[in-house]
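hi! just following up on the protien thing from before. the input was this:
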Amino acid sequence: MTAQPSGGAGRHDRRYRYGAWSGGPDPLAPPFDVRAAVDAVGEEVLAGGSLREALRDLLRRGQDGARGLDDLEARARRMRQQASRRGRLDGTVTRARALLDQALAAERDALDDRVAAARGEDDPGEPDLDAQFSRARLDALPRSTAAAVRELADYEWTSDDAKADYQKILDELRGEVLDQRFAGMRAALQGADPATNPEAAARMSAMLFDLNDLLAQHASGHDTTDAFSEFMEQHGDFFPEDPESTDELVDQLARQAAAAEQLMRSLSPSQREELAGLMSQALAGPMSTALADQLAALSESLRALRPELAWDRARQTTGSEPLGYGDATGALAELADLDDLVEQLGQEHPGATLDDVDVEAVERHLGRGSADDVRRLAELERELRRQGWVTTGPDGTTLSPKALRRLGSTALRHVFSDLENGRRGQHDLRSAGAAGEATGASRPWEFGDTQPIDVVRTVQNALRRRVSEGGEGAVSLEVADFEVVETERRSGAAVALLVDLSYSMVAEGRWGPMKQTALALAHLVATRFPQDALQIIGFGRYAATLTQAELAAVEPDYQQGTNLSHALALAGRHLRRHSASDPVVLVVTDGEP
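and the predicted 3d structure came back as:
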């Protein structure tokens, strides 16, 4: 909550208005319940779900009220659709054609007036040959807009309005091109046109020279911290985004340059030729070829520094509104950002983590709330790693041994919670069972013995003691009378856990109970009897040994076959390797061949 004073001048007259916290992540938010997240994954796995999908779904659906990646990705896709319907990319060529037609119409009218005036109805004079020649020159202009603009570069205009419309074609395109590459150009040059103002052109040229030098140092691996500070001090007004490092400056400029390249790739061949010709004409003349060369060198440097951008990718937009050069490149830059964002939020590539998501791009396009959601999910993912619940390997993210122990414990609790109430064979007794086979002999009981009491010999000892002492009446037992059965001591048991992974387990809905039972048994043996040698064997069409992690992550392969014989052969091999231990074979199966 935030409180803001409203009204009242006196200390006791102040009123406060309370609302939802809007200053970033809630500082009073409870810490992440990472164990709850692990348990949520475990529940899905024990229900028969895929471990990979369970871990993925945890982040895709979100936790504790935070939006997950699915919701954020869907919003990014919707925004991309809106951006793709912003308008047509050929607006610059269309606008130039309209201005050219307007200029030619005005010029033809002015020339016709000159010709008509020279003829004169009452006093015809000499024909205006210059006007007739100019009229013929206009009629012979090529159909291409760019070619026509180039042909008219040295034309002597009769109509001032026509001349202004023609000049507007070049001025508008030149301004849009430069302003698209350097957002602060107009403010930095205070409205001066580099094409007509030598001082503006000199400032622009000096900035480009210093920028190319800075990028060359950066590309060669030099530390450009001081050089960047000096550059921004001299030319910072060209960059209102106020980048804080050379890398940020490169990111900003490369994104804009890539959008300009994409615009050219997205046009039809004829439109591309028209726009290239118009741009060449707009940047020629007073701008000098040196300035154009510096712009070309800048594009090459940016492309080398950020080759991962979609420089050559063509994108299509729809809509009835023709977009100018700046608006078209802006729309393409936004589409490129949103495409990258959709890919980052999709997390489909191997080894993907939420650290791959550009949080600044999320905030720029989806808002601060969405960026906070990504930060919370990324923090949850980091906490799962930091606390040792998940590990990342060549096969992607999986549960750690620590998490598998918790999963096995959960499975064990589920198994026993499903048993009917009543006698359960005293399963939880610590002293249940013998340590080995009985030898037929017995020995006096000692403190700490866990062998079973030899009742017959214990009673016989009591009777002999009573007779030797001359006692009568009931026989009483004393500590010295007790004897225990001697057994063959063994270090533990050799346990082979055979798990049916055949198609029938999936088809009949037994996959979840199978995995739950198998994990519970594996956990029971591993934790209660750590001295036992446990081997897990999965069998379907063929049998193979599995680790506990592989058992948790195993997924159906939908192949028919229940090769119990192969599984028993592997189990026999395991038991023979531990011949001094008690042999135990446990089979989890539905019994269908």
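Strands lie at 2-5, 16-19, 390-393, 396-399, 438-444, 483-487, 493-500, 533-539, 543-546, 582-588.
The first helix runs from residue 34 to 46.
cheers
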